[in-house]
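Researcher: Here's my situation. A collaborator sent me these components and asked whether they could plausibly form a single complex. I don't have experimental data yet, so a predicted model of the whole assembly would be a useful starting point for our discussion.
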Amino acid sequence: MVLQALVWCIAAVVLVSCGPAPGAQAPAITITDAWARPAMMSGDGHGMGMNSAVYFVVRNSGGQADRLIGASTAVAGRAELHETREEGGVMRMVPVPAVEIPAGGEVAFRPGGLHIMLMDLKRDLKVGDSFELTLRFERAGELKLSVPVRQGGM
Amino acid sequence: MVSDRRKFLLWSAVATLAIIVVGAAGLFVLRSQEPELPVYGSLPNLALVDQDGYSFSLAETRGKVVVLSLIYTHCPDICPLITGKVQAIQARLKAAGLGEAVVFLTVTFDPERDTPPVLRRYAQSFQVDLSNWRFLTGPPDAIEGLTDLLGFYTERTYVTDRPAAAGSAEVRAETPYFITHSDRFFVIDRKGQIRASLPGSRTDIDQAVRIIRRLVAET
């Protein structure tokens, strides 16, 4: 009995010592206000269908910055980080390799700015549907969220 | 003998009336001081095809004010915003009883991919009220002529893992692309003259409705 308690104590000490070093709080990522635009697949069997975009707000309440480095979903062949940039009244969409989420800060993915672009859709995304999206962070790892499809963004 | 209370009520009524008259006059003066909407040019008489496959000539819109937007259906971010703005304008005008005086046209600047069925699906997915709105496609050279006339910039960007090969015609034919484009839409008067160029996804709905109302009121 005493031996068993001793083993548990040692195990507890080992587990605690495997955690983050004191003073280096890990990022604590939360996602809110996620939604995606409706879009339909190519109806003629060839070429790309419509593309969708996913928007949300990422908040990092931890003490260490993190970076969003990728996304994936079963409803699209490709999910990429993109940003729409305005240059003299012309809208240009550019791929973004990673987005820094500062410690204690937040980054909004909003229409006309940062978004996850969904290409090569595997099914129609209709208003009222929802689907699962996985976001990949450099430190926090993978985070799954449910994304409703709706109109909006004006 | 009129009581003090009655005198007070009388003067209150007179003062209220005066405020209304002065306010209305001020509003009229302010409205009349709004600058004339310039004429940027005339809409060409293009033969296009709508989302149901029916032929459509831009000349058919003469006598109505036209809200003319340009989109491509593969655009995930800005074109849906433009469509949303135009939907909001359409709803406001309909609620004001002006639905019959205004027609909404959306022309694709990606006619190779945006066939009538594709445009129909786009309209359906954004739940567009098609009662006075048509989505149009047509010959690429005709649409290029329209974008040139409107000063509407478009440029294709190919999405490929083989950028070195993107220049070849064979690769381009098979490669998905996006289109960098202007963020504007236009208001056309009853005579087919281009009278306003609004900042697309950033358009102020109130301002757009005011401009359209002015053009509806023109004889």
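Model: Some features of this prediction you could bring to your collaborator: The two ends of chain A are 66 Å apart (CA to CA). The first helix of chain A runs from residue 2 to 18.
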